[in-house]
Amino acid sequence: MEARWPQKIGLAVGLTDARGNWISSDEDKSIILHAEPDNDGIFESSSVQLKKGQSVIESYYTPLREGKVAVKAIAGGLQNPQITIEFRYTPYVFWFIAVIGGLFGGIAKKVLEKARGRELLPGALVGCVTGWLAYILVPVLDFQSIQPSIQGASRLFLAFLYGFIGGGIGFLLFKPLLDKFRPARANH
Asked: Which tens digit of pLDDT belongs to each residue from 12-63?
């Protein structure tokens, strides 16, 4: 199962017969929901009540990071079925994070050059574009030499980092082009 943004995943919890068909509960049942690994997400409620005569109840799980999670419903004296949920962000989420990283990288570059106010705008705009380009091109250009040093980082952090670096150095790539459009200053 692949989830998309927003992250909330609906889970149908209930009783089934041997063929997998929903059946009504003959008594009130308390069902505990458990996920493994347990720190990769949050249940809306980790304990649900299936009332007598009910066959299914809905609960929600919100993943906190990408990856696979095994979800188990535990009810006393019954088999405890397990499902596996795999959560992945869509590429657009990473692109957006890279653009934000590029924005910050471009602004940081201009601030280091002592730019202020409206002078930051070109750095911000160029940073957005080159931050996104850096995120797209890093895997294509195979910069595996920097991967081991940041191996434990999440993909969201890497998108921001590549965007920030791209935003910071991107102005160097576009400076000759931007200089052509900059009005000449008169010397007094």
From this structure: 888 888 888 888 888 888 888 888 887 778 888 888 888 999 988 888 888 8
Measured at the CA of 151, the angle between CA 148 and CA 156, to 5 degrees, comes to 135
Show Cβ contacts of residue 33 under 8 Å, excluding neighbours closer than 6 positions.
Answer: 11, 13, 43, 45, 46, 47, 48, 59, 61, 71, 72, 73, 74
Q: Running DSSP on this structure, what letter comes out for residue 4?
A: -
Query: Which value, in Å, is the radius of gyration of the alpha carbons in the chain?
Result: 25
Q: What fold is seen in the domain 2-87? A: Immunoglobulin-like (2.60.40)
| Nearest partner of 12 among 88, 87, 73, 99, judged by Cα | 73
Helix (H, G, I), strand (E, B) or coil at 173: helix
What token pair was written down for 14? 């209930």
Which ranges in 40-154 belong to alpha helices (H)?
91-112, 120-141
Domain residue spans of the chain: 2-87, 91-181
Q: Collapsing DSSP states into helix, strand and coil, what is residue 35?
A: strand
Quote the pTM value.
0.54
